[in-house]
Amino acid sequence: MTASPVQRRTQAQRREGTIGALLEATVACLTERGYAATSTAAVCAEAGVSQGALFRHFPTRQALLVATAEHVATRNVAAFRLTTEGAAVDTVDEVADVLAHLRAAVLSPTNQTWRELLVAARADADLRAALLPARELLQAQMLDVAADLWGERLSADDLPAVLSLVVNMLDGLAFSALDPDPAAAPGRTVERALRLLAELIVHRYPEESP
Amino acid sequence: MTASPVQRRTQAQRREGTIGALLEATVACLTERGYAATSTAAVCAEAGVSQGALFRHFPTRQALLVATAEHVATRNVAAFRLTTEGAAVDTVDEVADVLAHLRAAVLSPTNQTWRELLVAARADADLRAALLPARELLQAQMLDVAADLWGERLSADDLPAVLSLVVNMLDGLAFSALDPDPAAAPGRTVERALRLLAELIVHRYPEESP
DNA sequence: ATAGAAAGTGAGTACTTGCTATCTAACCTC
DNA sequence: GAGGTTAGATAGCAAGTACTCACTTTCTAT
């Protein structure tokens, strides 16, 4: 009874624990407060650690944000892969279904985090450079996922184009979807737009057997 | 020779002059520095006026930003209208041409300003509420422009969906286009994507005369 | 010309920011 | 255990923030 119940962690465990808490806290702050309001103090408060702890593991605020970016990038591509894995994409309905799931994935907090960092990087050359590797990795892996989905039916030219179309449309949607209720009035419009996209994708490669 | 050459402006002219300079300066700061770095000091330096002048005309920083938003919103819809006015949209090539012009318009500084404010509004309830009227006005006017372009050939259901598709795709493109050279390596991909979009739009209403 | 109002100035306010220096608590090696 | 190293807490700093206020300059009405 001399030691408190949850203790005797190894140094590496302690370290990993607070680093993880800081990354998660950064994600939370970014999604619900935005980039500018994600101060080191706010992140520390959310993570339940002191500022000194933060600056022990990350030399600068930007380092924390870059680490967070890499953290969510891998999670995002994993979510995409999960969403599309084994999905049928032969009919318009099936493709529309995939698109609906992709839309939900794009609207997720981790993806919102990624977007927030991308926007911030536009006006910050250092951050932009630091984010470049993660960006290229994510792009390549997204292309892999797309190839798994549509690779056998879309040409090498069309595949990245369709990917760009889908991803950019969903991202644009996420940016302009700042209304409290994401499934608000124009929801029907968005659904219809996604259906048109699905038609485009399916009709791009009409089924061999009519 | 007692008075300097360019003087004797009326008070209204002076007022309008500095307000205009402040709005333009805000646009410049937002596009090249981003929302967070658009401080009142930065705007005043860019506009060449003192902070006191700013706070005479705008009670708060947010008021300045909202005024800027309304300022650019009207300019943006005018640019869109100009871009599409009288354009032919019968063939895939013609629609692709329109989309290319729309893309350029979406990448313009004033549109970038609008986007910057939209993103900031996501994490700021007050700003979001203040931006709502301008947002709805812009949306309605964009729908008008789209109706002028495609109204006779797309159904009332499809029109807003196609508009959403095009605008969101272009916006998403603008967000992720933070590379120095916007017409960089994946430029071909984007062009191909826009062409696919054009095909979708044209094939949505096959010409009556085959 | 002169009084009064509006426009513009710039130093100053209270506060927040990222970050550091100093120190204590927890862990590892012996 | 002791000695040394790492992790974390706390107070504080310089720089920057939005905004204010006493003041001068510029226009307007008489």
UniProtKB/TrEMBL annotation, chains A, B:
UniProt xrefs under SUPFAM superfamilies: Homeodomain-like
Keywords tagged on the record: DNA-binding
InterPro entries: Homeodomain-like_sf, HTH-type_TetR-like_transc_reg, HTH_TetR
Annotation: DNA-binding region: 39-58
Any matching Pfam family: TetR_N
Coiled-coil features, chain-numbered ranges: none
HTH tetR-type domain residues: 16-76
Protein name: Helix-turn-helix domain containing protein
